[in-house]
Specification:
The chain has 15 helices and no strands. By secondary structure, it is mainly α. It is a multi-pass membrane protein. Its main location: membrane. Keywords: Cell membrane, Membrane, Transmembrane, Transmembrane helix, Transport.
C-alpha cells in the first residue's frame, strides 16, 4: 500500500522538542486534573468503607484503614429503605419521561414561527423563572389540587421545566426549516412532524435534558418533607437517608467524640458517626447517576452546546 505524501509527512517525521515538551506538559496536566476530580469521590468511598471509630482520627486517604461494611449495613438495615428506593426509582423514571415529553411538546409549539402566541408564551414561561408565589401559596395550591399525600405531587408540579424548555426550543430553532416545509407539503400534520422529525433530530438535547431532570428527581427530598412526611409508604430514598443522618447527629450529640473513640478502643462495638453515614449516603445516591451518565455522555456535550446556540 502506497502512503500519500501528506501522511508520510505527518507520521514519518520525528517529533520536535517543542512537540515533546507540549505532549509531556499536556499529559501531566490531564493526570493532575483527573486526580483532582477523582480524589474526593475515592476519599468518600474510603471513608464509607472505614470503621467509624477509626475515621474519627482522620487521615483517611484513598484506601480504608480498617475495612468494614457496617456503614452500609446500617443504612440498608432500615426497614423503610427498600420501599423508599422503589419510590425514588418510580418518581425518577415517570417524572423524567413525562417532564421531557411535555417540555419537548411545548418547546416545539413555541418554536414554530406561525404560532401567533409564540412571543407571549415564551415571555410568560420565562417570567416564572424570576417570580413565584412563594412556599405557602404553593402549598395551598397543591392542597386545592388534591395532590398532597399522593405520588403525583412528585411529578405534576415539575412537569414543565422552563430552563429545559428554552434549551429544547433553541435546539429545534436550529433545525433546517426546509425539512418541516417538505413534510408539510407532503401532508404531514403537527403531530407527525413532532414525532417523526423534531423528536428524532433532537435526540442529543433530549438526552441532555433527561439527565438534568433525572438527577433533580433522584436527589429531591424537600417535597417529600413538605407534602408527604406523614405518608411513610411515599417516602423517598433521599428523605430516608436524611432522617438517618439526623438520627446519627442526635446520637453523636448525646455522647462526645472522645466517648465514641473510647468505646472503639475498649470493646470495638460497631457504631456509626455522621461522617461515616454521610459518606455512605453519598456513595449510595451517586452510584445510579454514575451508572447512567456514560450512556448519555456522547449526547451530553453536543446537546448542551447546540441547544444554547440561539436564544
Amino acid at each position: 500500500m502506497k502512503l500519500s505524501p501528506n501522511l508520510l509527512g505527518r507520521f514519518g517525521r520525528r517529533k520536535s522538542w517543542d512537540d515533546v515538551i507540549f505532549d509531556t506538559i499536556n499529559t501531566l496536566f490531564m493526570i493532575f486534573l483527573c486526580t483532582v476530580m477523582l480524589y474526593p469521590l475515592l476519599n468518600t468511598l474510603a471513608i464509607s468503607l472505614n470503621d467509624a471509630n477509626d475515621s474519627i482520627r482522620g487521615g483517611i486517604g484513598l484506601i480504608p484503614r480498617e475495612f468494614t461494611w457496617y456503614n452500609y449495613q446500617h443504612v440498608f438495615g432500615e426497614a423503610a429503605i427498600l420501599q423508599a428506593g422503589l419510590i425514588s426509582i418510580l418518581r425518577t423514571v415517570i417524572g423524567t419521561a413525562l417532564s421531557v415529553f411535555c417540555t419537548a411538546m411545548v418547546a416545539y409549539t413555541i418554536s414554530r414561527q406561525y404560532f401567533v402566541l409564540r412571543r407571549f408564551m415564551t415571555i410568560a414561561f420565562v417570567l416564572t423563572m424570576y417570580f413565584n408565589g412563594g412556599l405557602i401559596p404553593t402549598y395551598l395550591l397543591m392542597r386545592e389540587l388534591n395532590l398532597i399525600g399522593t405520588f403525583w405531587i412528585y411529578v405534576i408540579p415539575g412537569i414543565i421545566g422552563v430552563f429545559n424548555l428554552i434549551v429544547i426550543r433553541s435546539f429545534i430553532d436550529g433545525l433546517p426549516e426546509s425539512i418541516f416545509e417538505s413534510a408539510r407539503i407532503d401532508g404531514a400534520g403537527e403531530w407527525t412532524m413532532f414525532f417523526k422529525i423534531a423528536l428524532p433530530l433532537s435526540l442529543p438535547v433530549i438526552a441532555t435534558v433527561s439527565l438534568f431532570v433525572a438527577v433533580f428527581q433522584w436527589n429531591s427530598w424537600f417535597d417529600v418533607f413538605l407534602y408527604n412526611s406523614a405518608q411513610p409508604h411515599l417516602s423517598t430514598l433521599q428523605y430516608e437517608l436524611m432522617k438517618i443522618l439526623q438520627n446519627s447527629n442526635a446520637s453523636l450529640t448525646a455522647r462526645s467524640a472522645a466517648d465514641v473513640f473510647a468505646s472503639g478502643q475498649g470493646g470495638g462495638a460497631n457504631i456509626v458517626t455522621p461522617t461515616s453515614i454521610r459518606a455512605a449516603m453519598t456513595i449510595v445516591v451517586s452510584v445510579p447517576i454514575i451508572m447512567v451518565y456514560p450512556f448519555l455522555q456522547k449526547y451530553f456535550v453536543k446537546g448542551l452546546t447546540l441547544g444554547g446556540v440561539k436564544g
